[in-house]
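One such shown below:
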Amino acid sequence: MTEREKMLSGMLYDTSDPELNAMRIKARKLSRRYNQTDEDENEKQVAILEELLPKSAHLPSLQAPVQFDYGCNTSFGRFCYVNFNFTCLDVCPIHIGDNVMIGPNCTLATPMHPLLPEGRNVRQRLDGSLYNLEYAKPIIIERNCWLAANIVVCGGVTIGEGSVIGAGSVVTRNIPSHSFAAGNPCHVIRELSEDDRM
């Protein structure tokens, strides 16, 4: 089993693997190129995003700057909008459904590290080279969700359809559909209802 296969399946894997390192470098270069474009350079932006996000049949509207770990592990649905300073650590798959809005300074973080230090500390091979092990859990943001500003979504979380996550939240567990949730750790405050219609 390759390190990439281990990574995508949620197993401990070697982050220094040459294939994975090359993929990260490519994504970071594409992220930097995207960040150097202007908003009126639509053709340049589309070309970069098509390479950075090959699993997205519908490209999102992304306000630079953005930062992707891999890009190829993230898929966006239709009509998604992402505001400034988006960080996407897509070690495991991240699925973002149709009509999702993500506010500024948000992070989607699939990587996980062993809780005990001996599991996460740097290791040394016989040849003297260093490496460490991590694992990851996928993130799913279902359609019609809104994530306000300064939100962190941790690996293993599903945010249910139509939910709203309040500003400054750290989402560590699943959020059911049609909920307003907020806080650190994020928790459901109430169900959304017809009373919320404007």
Notes: The two ends are 52 Å apart (CA to CA). The chain has a mean pLDDT of 96. The first helix runs from residue 3 to 8. The CA atoms of residues 123 and 131 lie 5 Å apart.
